[in-house]
Amino acid sequence: MHDIAAFRALHEARFEAEPAIFSAPGRVNLIGEHTDYAEGFVMPAAINFATLAGISPRADGKIALFSENYGQVLYFDAADLPAKATQHWTDYPLGVISILAGEGHTIPGFSLSLWGDVPLGSGLSSSAAVEVATGLAVTSLIGVDYPRPVLARLCQRAENEFVGANCGIMDQFISANGAKDHALLLDCRDLSYKLAPIPEHVELVIANTMVKHSVAGSGYTSRRADVEAACAVIASHRPEVKFLRDATLDDLKKWGGEMTPTALKRARHVITENTRTVAAAKALIDGELHELGRLMAEAHESYSKDFEASCEEADTMVALAQNLPGLIGARLTGGGFGGCTINLVEHQQANAFVQALGELYKSKTGIAPQIHICHASGGAHRIE
Ligand code: GLA
User: Fold this and answer.
1) For 287-309, how does the pLDDT look when each residue is reduced to its tens digit (9 = 90+)?
2) Closest to 124 in 3D by CA, of 218, 53, 22, 206
3) What is residue 61's three-state secondary structure?
4) Which pLDDT value is given to residue 2?
5) Is residue 344 helix, strand or coil?
6) What are the structural domains, with CATH classification, of the chain?
């Protein structure tokens, strides 16, 4: 799928230098949505869609950023980097470079080529893949070896502070730390995690509604604000509650009346989702796939009704999957308002499932979806 030799040749032809090449994956989240910035639990897996970054030093003090996807190369002065985002694809690599500079690293001149096949704006973390690939490439060039959770945090800061999207840690963390054939139950409070093996007979079927999603969009931002407002109400009674991770349904019963009805619903999603995510990891580890599917259905319902972060097409995609042979569980994955659904499907039925879901969705919505059978992959790494 990733033609490394062709990528290397592109970089060499353009920059007349041999690149060191790195790869960072996109991700799919099995369960645990909008819980990461509330210091809760998420259970993503890295997938076999990725960004490749090729890097070689330059002697002229310039930073050349080349995107094969956008067919564009731009040059910057390493000693005088842009201080602000410009709503351009270069914001992501420049954000990472600027965060590294802010950490006290002297940034030398280099040429960086990027190529990726994570579908853009589809809730599969194409931006985290670019950030982590860039972070790994640049730190390796300057001879710095950050522990992966630290690298993930720096990439998240690039997105928060430079790009201006208020995301949590999930996407960058899983891109940096993914494990082949495993999902990862991540505690977003202390970044400790537990691996949950995905059984060989279970396929990750990712169905793109083709409705564009953006973490920089108003939906994501307003949901996060609602969650924080609900938390502030609880904290005014129980100061030890710093994030909704610390809150319970009992707190909502007692003080929900002091919240807006909207904030109350958002908080109910986050609090119940944390419980579901921990239970889902246990179900996956114990091989109780029926229970896992039930929790995924409940999570989708909560995401759609209480969090109101789904959309008609995603609800349709999830509903259509329910009656198809081989389905274990289905829900909308990622930041919401479009993007992809994740379907856990029995291997034997996976091809027929893809075919049938595609046809049903097309005839119901008039939109031809893209549906992929993906694999849980390892995290970011250097390609030798
Ligand atoms: C996006 C963000 C993540 C997380 C999810 C929702 O992917 O980047 O940090 O908040 O949405 O679970």
Assistant:
1) 999 999 999 999 999 999 999 99
2) 206
3) coil
4) 76
5) strand
6) 4-197 (3.30.230.10)
Q: Residue 293 contacts by C-beta under 8 Å, 6 or more apart in sequence? A: 327, 328, 329, 344
- Spatial distance between the Cα atoms of 165 and 214, rounded to a whole number of angstroms: 9
39 lines ligand 1 (CB under 6 A): no
199 close to 45: Cβ distance less than 8 angstroms:
no
Contacts of 122 (CB under 8 A, 6+ apart): 208, 212, 213, 334, 338, 339, 340
Whether pTM > 0.90 for this model: the answer is: yes
Catalytic residue numbers read: 171
Closest atom of ligand 1 relative to the 170 alpha carbon? 9
Report how far ligand 1's centroid is from the alpha carbon of 174 (Å).
Answer: 11
SS3 content of the chain, % helix, strand, coil (to 5): 45, 25, 30
Report how far ligand 1's centroid is from the alpha carbon of 336 (Å): 8
Instruction: Kindly write down the DSSP assignment for every residue of 11-41, as one continuous string.
Output: HHHHHSSPPEEEEEEEEEESS--S-GGGT-E
Q: Model confidence over 375-384: pLDDT tens digits?
A: 999 999 999 8
CA separation (Å) from 141 to 12, 58, 59, 110, 114?
17, 11, 13, 9, 15
pLDDT score at 1: 46
What is the residue with the minimal CA distance to atom 8 of ligand 1?
A: 167
Task: Report the C-alpha gap between 19 and 56 in whole angstroms.
Answer: 5
